[in-house]
TrEMBL record:
Record-annotated membrane-spanning stretches: 739-758, 778-800, 830-852, 880-907, 919-941
Reaction equations catalysed: NADH + O2 + H(+) = H2O2 + NAD(+); NADPH + O2 + H(+) = H2O2 + NADP(+)
Ranges where the EF-hand domain occurs: 524-559, 560-595
InterPro entries per the UniProt record, alphabetical: EF-hand-dom_pair (IPR011992), EF_Hand_1_Ca_BS (IPR018247), EF_hand_dom (IPR002048), FAD-bd_8 (IPR013112), FAD-bd_FR_type (IPR017927), Fe3_Rdtase_TM_dom (IPR013130), Fe_red_NAD-bd_6 (IPR013121), FNR_nucleotide-bd (IPR039261)
Organism of provenance: Microtus ochrogaster
Membrane topology recorded in Swiss-Prot or TrEMBL: Multi-pass membrane protein
Primary location recorded for the protein, binned into one broad class: membrane
PANTHER family linked to this entry: DUAL OXIDASE 2, NADPH OXIDASE
Keyword tags: Calcium, FAD, Flavoprotein, Hydrogen peroxide, Membrane, Metal-binding, NADP, Oxidoreductase, Peroxidase, Repeat, Thyroid hormones biosynthesis, Transmembrane, Transmembrane helix
Name the UniProt record assigns to this protein: NAD(P)H oxidase (H2O2-forming)
Length: 1249
């Protein structure tokens, strides 16, 4: 016995007594027609009357004890891996499986586990394996392994573990491979009611459970008996001695035995003769040369032998423990607690909360209505901001319509010349309070208050809401412009003049002052609006009729310059005496400056007025006649001729005519007026001093040539006559030339990602060892594994794009010729977006996998994930939530998506602009991101972890770069000077650290010790490299910069030590450093994006003053700002540049964009005043600079086109833009359009703020 103790261990192959009979001689099973159909065979064998008694008096318990003994000897039920299925075809019309007679029903049968060393050739056919030992050793009682046996033990007194009741074993746990097939009668599954036995299928039937309980109690009985007999024995000794006695009884009891493969093993004396009706041979002794392995023939015969004797059921007496009728008659009463509190009558000044109905497709929103002492009705929002004011006049007819159904809580208020107000009150009582207040207010009026009632539905139909009136007014404006400007009726839209009463009432409404101001895009309290409204309101009723509006519009659209100047004269002739005094002229100028948000001092404004009077020869006059006023504007007759009235809601055709009739008011490029047939013909005016100078042309080796508008136009026209395909080809060539380094890097990086994806996809699609996972979810595994490899690479090497110190160093090496280090941040964003997209695809692939796994049987999942699942017979695999929320890869994957979503949202332009601290904090989640990535792949659910292969090198480089930054960050730097400049700009001047070298246009990251030592924000240096200190101009646009402005308010006594110190990290480089590599450079700054160019301009002028040799010969600086007050600090820097620029290197053009969105007549007058101020003082009225100030947005395409003419010998011009994305996109688009031509090539670098 000892010599053959390893002969047959658990998992050994079955011993063949006859040759295998496979279809191919190796492993394929025989099927029809060589063998009968299994379903037909089953029907034939099981035919007959059920419930017949055994003719040999065999009992059901005897049959199931045979199953118990068989489970101790053999177990071949475990499915094989990889999974192989045999399809059992069901005969057509089978009453159980094919009642619909489809004829295509099959039952999949999964083949059993086999020895992987077999099935290779006909000489080595496939052999099944036995999952238990072939010995009758009590495996069905104690399990087939030491671990199983230890799980069953209590380790106390040598007994097996029991549950709450000592007479029953403990319930099955996950570590036991207990068969937990659901109850076929009830469908109940799970571990409830499943006891821990040694036999895997010990809970399959109640009879097997009973036998397991018998041997459980028998073992514990022996353990207690031996403990009393041998009190000095420990737990292990008691358990082993009790086990030996139980197994000996199990083996040798004459009633319970079974023939092994060889009948000469153990003699069985009682049960086997009675069961087989045959006496086995007498036991003659142990023969060690006999192999006790089980044969396949024995497995098939014994299993089916017992199956033929299993009855369909066992009749049991109905034991009625008690039938308790639980009739839960729950009375569902709807308790409506109507707090019938006395309604508190609110006064008119306190306001009444209601809901305002805005339309059938609009949501009602809460408002507060308030009756004021001056007899006006105000509608307030939640913040008590006035939304709408209705002035109640004594001669008005006020119509009040009340709803008569649906709670009687709706009210419609119709007041002439206003849109209807529909209010929904909380109750009829509250509505009555408001109606009573309104009646008390109107009781003394002659027309009074007219009240009616109607259904709520009809009330809503009768109401003319604000949206409805706005639509009607828009159509009316279109018709108005169509009549004035002779626009085609089809282009203007049709006026819905139908028989509806509400349309007729809306068209007879008159505009209030607020609506008039809103149509012009101005504020109702502006002096210009008051003057214009007072002039147009001829009847003085406080409203502007459409006829009165039309009279004003006709003057602006079709009037002569004399008509327009007379209108302006009449507007500001406040006393209507026919003269315009200096005070009234001063008031007119102040209204212009007020709307433009300028803050000229009274002295400056007085100087402008005096200069205009003096220039016109009226210095001795105190009053002007209209003739004098028009004479003063004599130099701007063309400007007045093309002055329009900008009204919101005008016709589309009107807007087109505005553009055709108005010229570009810029000093260097204009469009030919009236030449609408050739919109691309460009002309250059005779005076263009800021584009270039004769000195520059001499430097470039060309003579100074006066531009010829006609010749220039024809040349451009000829270039643009090329075909569409040729233009696109030229555009593509210039694009490749501009971004060849970017294209190469993106191509290489993308190729690596695609290669990694293809490698994993090919491996799992065709080259991986058979693991069943490919056959189970082919598409899902390819998608998830391929994207996982690409994501691992992307998330690893994205760290290199944030190694700022390394990038700044490499910019100065030869690698900058091949790698665009300046685009590191853009490359970072591109990798991040691509990684997020791949992460979504990765999740989609796993969603497919999870769906397939959720509907796959456990027998299949056991093959796919042998370390996770065991086949315990349950037909119900884990649900989808188990995969997502109860596994390490699933939970970390969900957390990764959540972290990516948070980082992506807060890294967007919108959130970064409004909450930089939110971006800063959420982007530090990258530490959590990488920790989750490591954990996500370390579970090795499908493959061994590989993320570290990609991550290790970039992580080391990034860690070293962070250490370099950390060595600089922790050096405290004192702030030398701090100023609070207008427009929310904070100026900081601080010490320059020793050895701190930088270039103009570079940026740094600072942290203020007073606001936290770990929150760094990037800002561009506005100091020049030659200066001894560093300076920053920081605009308060977010919480952190606002707090920074507060903390650097001027300290008491001016003690510098009281300023909080800074941590400094940098400098870091951007593309704006390369401005000196071009002969001609164009700097375009918009918004806060002008800060890099402050340092560049100062550095340029300083180098030129020293006579340094520079390639750059001319700089054009275009400053685009919403208002001239927005960045007044830059005006000081430009003024310093203008004073030191003795060689005319810098040309500055300033564009104020806010004025272009306002009233065009006002803009014209501001333009006229600006030119007078510049003519008298040689400075701008708005900035105080010698630079030319323009109203509107710069026409970049026209400007770049003129540069090609001014600098014909320059083959490459650098364009550097920094500002809002909209502006940089316009610059990029203009560069692409110009680069279609075979002239100077524009190289564009941009940075968005």
């Amino acid at each position: 016995m000892i010599q053959l103790s390893s002969l047959p261990p658990a998992g050994s192959r079955l011993q063949r007594l006859v040759p295998a009979n496979y279809a191919d001689g190796v492993y394929q099973a025989l099927e029809e027609p060589l063998l009968p159909n299994p379903r037909r065979l089953s029907d034939a064998v099981t035919q007959g009357k059920a419930g017949l008694a055994s003719i040999h008096n065999r009992t059901v318990l005897g049959v199931f004890f045979g199953y118990h003994v068989l489970s101790d000897l053999v177990s071949v039920e475990t499915p094989g891996c990889p999974a192989e299925f045999l399809n059992i075809y069901i005969p057509r019309g089978d009453p159980v499986f094919d009642p619909d007679k489809r004829g295509d029903v099959v039952l999949p049968f999964q083949r059993s586990r086999w020895d992987r060393k077999t099935g290779q050739s006909p000489s080595n056919p496939r052999d099944l394996t036995n999952q238990v030992t072939g010995w009758l050793d009590g495996s069905a009682i104690y399990g087939s392994s030491h671990s199983w046996s230890d799980t069953l033990r209590s380790f106390s007194g040598g007994q097996l573990a029991s549950g709450a009741d000592p007479a029953f074993p403990k319930e099955s746990q996950d570590q036991l491979l207990m068969w937990m097939a659901p109850d076929p009668a009830t469908g109940q599954g799970g571990s409830q009611g499943m006891y821990a036995f040694g036999a895997q299928r010990g809970n399959r039937e109640s009879f097997l459970q009973a036998l397991g309980l018998l041997w459980f109690r028998y073992h514990n009985l022996w353990a207690r008996r031996l403990a009393r007999e041998h009190p000095h024995w420990g737990d292990e000794e008691l358990f082993q001695h009790a086990r030996k006695r139980v197994i000996a009884t199990y083996q040798a009891h004459s009633n319970f035995s079974f023939p092994l493969a060889n009948p000469q093993n153990i003699a069985l004396y009682q049960w086997l003769p009675s069961f087989l009706q045959k006496n086995p041979p007498e036991y003659s002794g142990y023969r060690p040369f006999m192999d006790p392995s089980i044969s396949p023939e024995f497995v098939v015969a014994s299993e089916q032998f017992f199956s033929t004797m299993v009855p369909p059921g066992v009749y049991m007496s109905l034991v009625v423990a008690g039938v308790v009728a639980h009739h839960r008659n729950q009375e569902r009463k709807k308790l409506q607690k109507k707090g019938k509190e006395s309604l508190k009558k609110e006064t008119a000044s306190a306001g009444l909360p209601v809901m305002e109905w805005s339309g059938p497709k609009e949501r009602s929103y809460p408002v507060t209505i308030q009756l004021t002492p001056d007899r006006s009705l105000q509608v307030l929002d939640k913040r008590l901001t006035v939304l709408h004011t209705i002035q109640l006049r004594s001669l008005q007819q006020v119509n009040l319509i009340l709803s008569s159904n649906r709670g009687r809580r709706t009210l419609l208020l119709k007041i002439p010349k206003e849109y209807d107000l529909v209010l929904l009150f909380n109750s009829e009582e509250e509505r009555g309070v408001f109606v009573q207040q309104l009646q008390d207010l109107c009781i003394s009026w002659a027309p009074g208050l007219h009240m009616t009632e109607m259904d709520e539905k009809e009330l809503f139909r009768k109401a003319v809401t604000k949206q409805q009136r706005a639509g009607i007014l828009e159509i009316f404006f279109r018709q108005l412009f169509a009549q004035v400007l002779d626009i085609n009726q089809a282009d203007a839209g049709s006026l819905p003049l139908d028989s509806s009463q509400q349309v007729r009432e809306a068209l007879t409404c008159e505009l209030s002052r607020a609506e008039f101001a809103e149509s012009l895009g101005l504020k109702s309290q502006d002096l210009f609006v008051e003057a214009m409204f007072s002039l147009a309101d001829k009847d003085g009723n406080g409203y502007l009729s459409f006829r009165e509006f039309l009279d004003i519009l006709v003057v602006f659209m079709k009037g002569s310059p004399e008509d327009k100047s007379r209108l302006m004269f009449t507007m500001y002739d406040l006393d209507s005496n026919g003269f315009l005094s200096k005070d009234e002229f001063f008031t007119m100028m102040r209204s212009f400056i007020e709307i433009s948000n300028n803050c000229l001092s009274k002295a400056q404004l007085t100087e402008v007025v005096e200069s205009m009077f003096r220039e016109s020869g009226f210095q001795d006059k105190e009053e002007l006649t209209w003739e004098d006023f028009h004479f003063m504007l004599r130099d701007h007759d063309s400007d007045l001729r093309f002055t329009q009235l900008c009204v919101k809601g005008g016709a589309k055709g009107a807007g087109d005519i505005f553009k055709q009739r108005s010229g570009y008011r810029v000093s260097f490029i204009t469009r030919t007026p009236g030449n609408s047939s050739c919109p691309r013909e460009l002309v250059l005016p005779l005076k263009a001093p800021e584009l270039g100078s004769a000195g520059l042309k001499k430097k470039l080796g060309k003579k100074s040539m006066g531009p010829s508008p006609r010749l220039y136009t024809e040349a451009v026209q000829e270039k643009l006559q090329r075909g569409f395909l040729a233009q696109k080809l030229q555009q593509f060539k210039r694009f490749v030339e501009n971004y060849r380094r970017h294209i190469m890097c993106v191509t290489i990086f993308s190729a690596i990602c695609v290669g990694l994806f293809a490698d994993r996809a090919y491996y799992y699609g065709f080259a991986s060892p058979p693991t069943d996972i490919e056959e189970t979810t082919y598409v899902g595994i390819i998608l998830s594994r391929g994207t996982a490899a690409s994501i691992s690479f992307m998330f690893s090497y994205i760290l290199l794009t944030m190694c700022r110190n390394l990038i700044t160093f490499l910019r100065e090496t030869f690698l900058n010729r091949y790698i665009p280090f300046d685009a590191a941040v853009d490359f970072h964003r591109w990798i991040a977006m691509a990684a997020v997209v791949l992460a979504v695809l990765h999740s989609a692939g796993h969603a497919v996998n999870v769906y397939i796994f959720s509907v796959s049987p456990l027998s299949l999942l056991t093959c796919v994930f042998p370390n996770v699942f065991v086949n315990e017979g349950s037909k119900f695999p884990p649900k989808y939530y188990w995969w997502f929320f109860e596994t390490v890869p699933g939970m970390t994957g969900v957390l990764l998506l959540l972290v990516l979503a948070i980082m992506y949202v807060f890294a967007s332009h919108h959130f970064r602009r409004h909450s930089f601290r939110g971006f800063w904090l959420t982007h530090h989640l990258y530490v959590v991101l990488y920790a989750l990535l490591i954990i996500h792949g370390s579970y090795a659910l499908i493959q061994l972890p590989s993320f570290h292969i990609y991550f290790l090198v970039p992580a080391i480089i990034y860690g070293g770069d962070k250490l370099v930054s950390l060595s600089r960050k922790k050096v405290e730097i004192s702030v030398v000077k701090a100023e609070l400049l207008p427009s929310g700009v904070t100026y900081l001047q601080f010490q320059r650290p020793q050895g701190f070298e930088y270039k103009s246009g570079q940026w740094v990251r600072i942290a203020c010790l007073g606001l936290g030592t770990n929150e760094y924000h990037p800002f561009t240096l506005t100091s020049a490299p030659h200066e001894d200190t560093l300076s920053l101009h920081i605009r308060a646009v977010g919480p952190w910069t606002t707090r920074l402005r507060e903390i650097y308010s001027p300290p008491v006594g001016g003690i510098y030590a009281r300023y909080p110190k800074l941590y400094l990290d940098g400098p870091f480089g951007e593309g704006h450093q390369e401005w000196h590599k071009f002969e001609v450079s164009v700097l375009v700054g918009g918004g806060i994006g002008v800060t890099p160019f402050a340092s560049i301009l100062k550095d340029l002028v300083f180098k030129s003053s020293l006579g340094s040799q520079m390639l750059c010969k001319k700089i054009y600086f275009i400053w685009v700002t919403r208002t001239q007050r927005q960045f007044e600090w830059l005006a000081d820097i430009i003024r310093e540049v203008e004073e030191n620029d003795h060689q005319d290197l810098v040309s500055v053009q300033i564009y104020i964009t806010q004025l272009a969105e306002k009233f065009d007549l006002r803009t014209t007058m501001l333009y006229i005043c600006e030119r007078h101020f510049q003519k008298v003082l040689n400075r701008s009225l708005f900035t105080g600079l010698r630079s030319v100030t323009h109203f509107g947005r710069p026409p970049f395409e026209l400007f770049f086109n003129s540069l090609q003419e001014v600098h014909p010998e320059v083959r490459k011009i650098g364009v550097f833009s920094c500002g809002p994305p909209g502006m940089t996109k316009n610059v990029e688009k203009s560069c692409q359009l110009i680069n279609r031509r075979d002239q100077a090539h524009f190289v564009h670098h941009y940075e968005n703020f």
